[in-house]
Amino acid sequence: MGSLRDCQAWKAVGLPLSTSSNEACKLFDATLTQYVKWTNDKSLGGIEGCLTKLKAADPTFAMGHAISNGLVLVGTGSSVKLDKELDLAVKTMVDISKSQQLTPRERLHVSAVEMFAKGNFPRACDLWEQILRDHPTDMLALKFSHDAYFYLGYQEQMRDSVARVYPFWTPNVPLSSYVKGIYSFGLMETNFYDQAQKLAKEALSVEPTDAWSVHTIAHVHEMRAEVREGLEFMRHSEAHWKDSDMLACHNYWHWALYLIEKGEYEAALTIYDNHILPSLRASGAMLDVVDSCSMLYRLQMEGVSVGQRWQDVLPVTQKHTRDHILLFNDAHFLMASLGAKASQTTQELLTTLQEASQSPGENCQHQLARDVGLPLCQALVEAENGNPDRVLELLLPVRYRLVQIGGSNAQRDVFSQLLIHAALNCSSRSHRNVARSLLMERDALKPNSPLTERLIRKAAAVHLM
């Protein structure tokens, strides 16, 4: 842990930490570094190992509690409402912060994590932004806000939050090349594809194992329907990112999307079976969960039989039926319960989401559930029940609001595809004409997409094109 920063090193860069333990400071740095790199570094003991040692080195280190709780919360697999241990950990963090002389920056960190725990993501972001105005090289504030903006679908804020601090991240600042990757993702999500690709390539020229920058380039090729280039890039770079355990599964998911786009379904299923399902079973991480569900659902819409694969996903998603942390997650859990024909689980998810929407408090996801989350979930149910006209009636009015449930443009495309497939199968002629409109729009935005061309051929078969 020689290169990791001790108390004096953190103080020297204007980010002092309120602990006298050099060991705690170094372990904080080790945890933060792994979070930024999307990997559990075995030589450091992984994130869990570092956090365990961090708490032992100084049990009352407020920023140790903030990073520990924050990482659990941004993982979106646990909520203070259902996880009593997490609830106690957040309360302990707040109590510790009140009993100490912390810096204003540290107090804001604690408050932001507390707000995120309550589901008030916008307020948490405001607090992290307050930190970044005075401390533009505070990586924890930058990363936590980036993730929260992503969950909120705040694409411009996700981009601009990094743009505001980017000039301060000079090459001598630790982890500065990774900021290029973080910035590139915000640029890509706001359709600045050339700038995004340039910046991600710059990041990779400094650090080829930067899996997040690889991920940006994968997105650029996906959004431009550059299937051949995307496949070549993933094959060429695979050796550099396949060991980035927290993101490798997602990068393989992008690889599989190119194959689905091409209509090479067996090859896509091979990636699913060899990389995505094993990662899901090993980690249970929400990113791996939504990737699994999204991929199987896309294949099903293409008419591909996925066999018993939903049965493999269901035990993981079932545990989260009542979480209601992110509407984006809920929609994917629902895909699994519908795919596995687990009607009781489906009903439980819908009923408890309805209840959450009726008394949302300051939880931004519960506030959004009534107008966006529930219509989306109901549309998935109606699609499963063979009611395409009802799917259209539910989805069409909210299609431009779906960005608010978070996720990337590429991830939410599953819902666009659902809408088109439903419209193509509608009994009403005017409803089927919606398919033609959507396909013309899709073809204009993403020309040369093989998937769009297949859908256009399907529309032509029913005399819509």
From TrEMBL:
It comes from the Eukaryota. The keyword Ribonucleoprotein does not apply. It comes from Jaculus jaculus. Keywords: Repeat, TPR repeat. The keyword Repeat applies. This is Tetratricopeptide repeat protein 38. Belongs to the TTC38 family. Transmembrane segments: none annotated. CDD domains: StaR_like (cd05804).
